[in-house]
Specification:
By secondary structure, the protein is α+β, with helices and mostly antiparallel strands. The chain contains five helices and four strands, in the order βαββααβαα. The protein has one domain. Helix content is 41%, strand content 21%. A hairpin with a 5-residue loop joins β2 and β3.
């Protein structure tokens, strides 16, 4: 089975929110076939800037059971070098999870593009700030339309 396209995200959270909020959502999205979690690493950036990382094989049985279906496809693709590089985005004294996602829906779309003898010219993710600005503009336009 081919792998890809892949996307990484680094999510920081206080406390133990990974297990109670983020992992169940990743599991639910994966079960719907929208993404596949192919790797994840739990990272802690200490107050002195040092990094500690836990991979799934470092977790105890209870923690592993909290992973749900996420644990089924982990491939160990995140390297120690990736952890160091991506940890630069994490503030000190913060816990985070580095998640590597595969987007299987893109493979299905690409197959349809190929069947149509078409090609994708460009793609990318819209930054969060741009989406927030768009949401504000849409809300202002709705409010203006209601006043008219």
């Amino acid at each position: 089975m081919p792998v890809g396209p892949l996307e990484y995200i680094v999510i920081g959270t206080p406390g133990n929110q990974f297990m109670s909020e983020i992992l169940p959502e990743l599991s639910a999205i994966q079960e719907n076939g929208l993404i596949r979690v192919v790797d994840l690493v739990f990272v802690r950036k200490n107050p002195d800037g040092t990094i500690s990382a836990l991979e799934v094989h470092d977790l105890n049985d209870d923690e592993v059971s909290n992973l749900g279906s996420v644990k089924e496809n982990l491939m160990g693709l995140i390297t120690p070098e990736d952890i160091v590089t991506l940890s630069n985005a994490i503030p000190t004294d913060t816990a985070a999870v580095i998640v590597l996602l595969e987007h299987p829906w893109i493979n299905r779309l690409q197959a349809a593009v190929d069947r149509a003898n078409a090609q994708v010219f460009i793609g990318g993710m819209v930054p969060r700030g741009s989406i927030e600005q768009l949401e504000q503009e849409l809300a202002a336009a709705r409010q203006q339309a209601q006043q008219q």
